[in-house]
Amino acid sequence: MKICRFDDNRVGLVEGPAIRDVTAALDCLPAVRYPFPAGDLMISNFEHVLARAREIAGASPLIPIESVKLLSPVANPTKIVAAPVNYQKHLDEVRGDAQIHQNTPGHTITIQKAGLFLKANSSLVGPGEGIALRHLDRRNDHEVEVAMVIGRKANNVSRADALTYVAGYAIGLDITIRGPEDRSFRKSPDTYTVLGPWLITADEIRNPGELNLDISVNGEQRQNSNTRYMILDPAALIELASSFYTLYPGDVIITGTPEGVGPIVPGDRILARVERIGSMEVAVGEAS
After folding, report:
1. Which terminus in the chain has less CB density within 10 A, N or C?
2. Omega within 30 of 0 (cis) for the link into 35
3. CA 238, CA 253: separation in Å to the nearest integer?
């Protein structure tokens, strides 16, 4: 199944080029009071929401996807976890391009030494909201990634069990301002994490470590690879992340980008695709 959020926080089931509005399925969510439980409430009750959505979908009219604004399929992650230089060819291009590594040693070490990093939750948007670039005097780059959304609380999980904690997968764009600062700082402006176009349930992706992914800017292909070339595969990333902090339902792990990263400027249009998940088009603008 593919589930999306759109327009004014509506929830839909994706059927080909259309959406069935199943927002009423959220009525099955438990009532909560402050302090709210950790995690995204829809994802922590995902099975119940999906079951209710199936029940009511047949009575819901079809809405063309092109007529709605797609939001991030996850509203309230407690954290966005990111994997730096997780493809060898991308590590090679970082080391070979001073515009990317900025002569900063910490930007050219392996993921095993660098570990993971966090992006601000406030950077999260959906493809329909677009990217609003900041610091236009500096290079801003696109990075296409496979994103995993955690479905249940995970702490110190093994690699063997890791994928059982995934609720679903999406396409992620990790937008980056080049410079000498820490990754978390340069990658956390508003709109610099795009997630979408929907969440495809984990049962639809047999092996997330065997997916083609690519990105084009204004019709020019920039990145084209396969997740088999990850240094740490999706299960290993969950194992590593959960060994340092607890993952909660709705937490997002973006799994790293392959070679071919490049600059984007206001007015560009990005088309990102991941096998079995789909594609999303994102407009690039300028922050006001």
Report:
1. C
2. yes
3. 8
How many CB atoms sit inside 10 A of residue 99's CB?
10
Query: CA end-to-end span of the chain, whole Å?
Result: 37
pTM of the model: 0.96
pLDDT (tens digit per residue) in 91-112? 888 888 777 777 776 677 889 9
DSSP 154: B
Give the E-state strand segments of the chain in sequence order: 2-6, 10-15, 18-21, 62-64, 80-82, 117-119, 124-125, 131-133, 140-142, 144-150, 166-174, 176-177, 193-201, 212-217, 220-226, 252-254, 262-263, 269-274, 278-286
Residue 253, strand partner residues:
81, 148
Give the whole-angstrom CA distance, residue 83 versus residue 184: 11
Domains recognised in the chain with CATH numbers: 2-67 (no CATH), 80-286 (3.90.850.10)
- At 190-207, the pLDDT tens digits run 999 999 999 999 999 999
| Bridge-based pairing state of the strands 176-177 and 140-142 | antiparallel
